[in-house]
Structure formats: structure tokens, C-alpha cells
Amino acid sequence: MKKAVLLCACSFACPSMKDLNFAELAERVRLELPHDFMLLHPRLCEANGEELLADLIKNDGVVYITAACKPEKQYKLFRDGFQKAGVEMTDKNFRPVWIQFKNTDQAFEEIKKALEELEK
Ligand code: SF4
Questions:
Q1: Is the domain defined by 2-118 classed in CATH 3.40.50?
Q2: How far apart are the first and last CA of the chain?
């Protein structure tokens, strides 16, 4: 499986992400963590984020590690994108990671942990 890391910055304005430096986080993920591709989007749950997800998800053999709000919320927010792609959301293709209320180091560690879990 290819590993895609999707970072959602919640408009770069959410108080719950005030301690996160997304530029630094993206560069650290790029340089330090094993993955196939990464993108940083300002608001994945809005219409154009959903369109992007729907198009991406059509690709077989990719697991999406989405670093964003609470996993419970992500399951709801991204469900439409999976439905539009005609792909069932499972833990084989979708691994939500919670990065709210974390600083850059903590968010990095959460993403790292999610990538490591894929190896088990
Ligand atoms: S998916 Fe979550 S983190 Fe991303 S913009 Fe929507 S509410 Fe914010």
C-alpha cells in the first residue's frame, strides 16, 4: 500500500491548532517520515477539499493518514468524499490522526505513530 499523508490546517485559524506550525510540520514529515506523498490543505472538509478527496480516493492501493480534527469528526466529515469515490471507508484505507490541541512536535509524533502502526 502507498501511504499518503494529508494535513488539514483548518483554515490556519482554528484556536485548537494555534501551537502548530504547519510549514514546519509539513517539512518534517517530508524529510523524516516514510510516505509516498503528502499534501497540506487549508480545509479538507469544505467542498473543494471533498472533491479533492473523492478524486484521490479513487486510486487503489493507497492508505490516507489524515492529520486533522478528532477522528470521530473526521469519519463524519470525510464520509461523503469516500461515497463520491465509490470506495468504502475502512481502516485499510483511512487512518485519521488527531492533531488539535497539540504543538508541532506532538502532532509530528502522532503522524509518525500512525505510519508505524501501518507496518504492524
Ligand atoms: S476536517 Fe476538521 S480540521 Fe479540517 S477543516 Fe474540517 S473541521 Fe477543520
A1: yes
A2: 13
Report residue 13 as a C-alpha cell. Answer: 485559524
**What are the grid coordinates assigned to 109, written together?**
509524533
- The full set of domain ranges for the chain reads 2-118
What's the pTM value of the predicted model, to 2 decimals? 0.96
Using the mean position of ligand 1's atoms as its centre, give its distance from the Cα of residue 72 in Å: 12
Q: Atom 8 in ligand 1: which residue has the minimum CA distance?
A: 10
What are the angstrom distances between the C-alpha of 103 and each of 22, 60, 108, 109? 10, 33, 9, 10
Residue-wise pLDDT tens digits, 70-110:
999 999 999 989 999 999 999 999 999 999 999 999 999 99
